[in-house]
């Protein structure tokens, strides 16, 4: 016993002396993003504001290696590198960063610093060549001119329109730098539900200032258009894309923009969707509208991102509509038009199959749109690493050009002569100190950029890079936290909408559950999407008995999805209406499988808290506490989702929640009250009697403040 005690004391002494105790990092608000572990982050301003000076400055300040770094724009163009690619040539005592263009060298510099920060510098001589997969790696901001952000959960818009063009926030440059460091090179700065005012001379002066700040970082500005701008700000009585006056309006407007911003990227357009105007208002097609704008941009090298997110209340199945409208237009779009398609056929749900359009328009430049902001995945309240969701889409085979024609291959332009290619992500950025609302949501900004550069990178590789640069490389931190991030998307699916369920969220904020909800429009009604009844649950999209959406996919996807036996279970209720007692592959009934999947989701979310608590020594106190508080909240929200969906479905299935699942903590009636915004009651007797003062308007409570209280086993109180 004595010798054991001596051993323990001796070991403790050795540990203390050898410095094994981790030193607690200094507090930070997270504003320095993945530059966190670089020293002197705050002073990154170069002496002169050119791409070359910025590249040199980053090396002078942050390169810690002994080897000298030479930054070199190649005298003789290297076709293999294109405009943005670079080569890092490591030889004894020297690293050379080579590219065809200055911006290529800047990407190379950030690539080199990334290798340094992630402990991945090669030991000996080596050449690393990096060429981005997509020409345009774009951000879409859904930022309004009043600085509100549609589906934004990280404060106000970064763009302070009242102060611009005279006053310039340092954040604009920090933003451009962060984007360049991960290769993002295009940004549509305003909401696709666009206000035409942004095209007025007053606003274009402001936009020009932003473009000037972004330019040395290789970031091109795009503007979202209101298709009715000729009427709204042009004094015309029509916005018909075939009307010569309208054509002239856009030509003039485009010339005016290029005079201010010579490298302007082009237009992003949401037309004839969710109340936005568009060419169909005049009996014209999407191609008519897009081509008219494309012709205005072509002389300057600009491009149109034309969105395929269209649906209307009449369609039998909203999931089919983008294809129904765009497939007939295949081959009609100009070369400088890209049709921007959301990853799934409905709307950024936790899991969707790919949009069938990716496999149906061989003669169209298709681009992928993903959502970085977590509209349906817990806003900035939940930790969800989204790369696995995006990667699942990119890796899905459309079979359009035979086996291997994945969404990535199709959108990269591998099967087209026209090599124009692009990808878009709806940002999660606002003016919050930590940019994204949730410290861990920064990974989605980072991962989007890395994926747009290289769609082949795995989720694990990207998470590894981000954690090392943003937090710590200590394996005791890295491994568990990385595993947690890698699982987090699947966990979110499990506790929100498992087995192919979709669009069953509360419709007021798209946060929290609302499976009982209906709307005056069926295509906005959760009940329309799950179709729960005594006979089962799920949307029948088969050819024989359902909407026939499965037929929009190429074989073998079409028959795989169409057949309940072969349909992947994680999409089962997307494509099939399934009896509650249906036997799943593991032998359970559908009902029990649903209950157990929710249960797993809750338990995994609970476990996050324990994992994070173990990571505490490696994280500064400020970020540690912020994340911990949110993780506790997330686990409780998982319970809320489960209680709501299962108790509601139980009214149809009449089956018990299995004993090995947590019992419900609230009644269905209680949960149905959450987030129901009631108007103040009128005085008894109905209408307001003449002369009595109007009832004061009550501010709507935030849905977040109405969360039902939950206690969870092993869960600390907030
Ligand atoms: O998902 C829906 C959102 C809308 C958004 C729309 C779109 C910008 O709820 O807020 O509008 O998609 O993508 O256009």
Descriptive overview:
This protein has 718 residues and is of the alpha/beta class. The chain contains 20 helices and twelve strands. The longest helix has 33 residues, at 621-653. The chain is globular and about 75 Å long. Bound molecules: 4-O-methyl-beta-D-glucopyranuronic acid. 4-O-methyl-beta-D-glucopyranuronic acid binds next to loops.
Mean pLDDT, nearest integer?
Answer: 93
Within the largest sheet, what's the order of strands?
A: 5-6-7-8-9-10-11-12
Helices, by number, come to: 20
DSSP strand (E) fraction?
5-15%
Number of strands: 12
Helical fraction equals 25-40%
How does the helix and strand content classify structurally? Answer: alpha/beta
The N- and C-terminal alpha carbons lie at a distance of 43 Å
**Cα gyration radius (Å):** 27 Å
The best one-word shape is: globular
In this entry the ligands are: 4-O-methyl-beta-D-glucopyranuronic acid
Largest sheet: 8 strands, parallel, barrel
The low-pLDDT segments are: 1-19, 679-686
Brief synopsis:
The protein has 718 residues and is α/β, with parallel strands linked by helices.
Outline the fold blueprint:
Blueprint (H helix, E strand, L loop, with lengths): L1 H16 L33 H12 L5 E6 L12 E6 L2 E6 L2 H16 L8 E5 L5 E5 L29 H13 L3 E3 L12 H14 L5 E6 L3 H4 L11 H17 L5 E4 L16 H12 L5 E5 L13 H6 L10 E6 L23 E6 L15 H9 L11 H5 L10 E5 L15 H12 L5 H12 L4 H22 L29 H5 L26 H6 L9 H4 L14 H25 L6 H33 L14 H6 L45
Parallel strand pairs: 1-3, 5-6, 5-12, 6-7, 7-8, 8-9, 9-10, 10-11, 11-12
Antiparallel strand pairs: 2-3, 2-4
The chain binds 4-O-methyl-beta-D-glucopyranuronic acid (GCW).
The site of 4-O-methyl-beta-D-glucopyranuronic acid (GCW) has 11 residues, from loops.
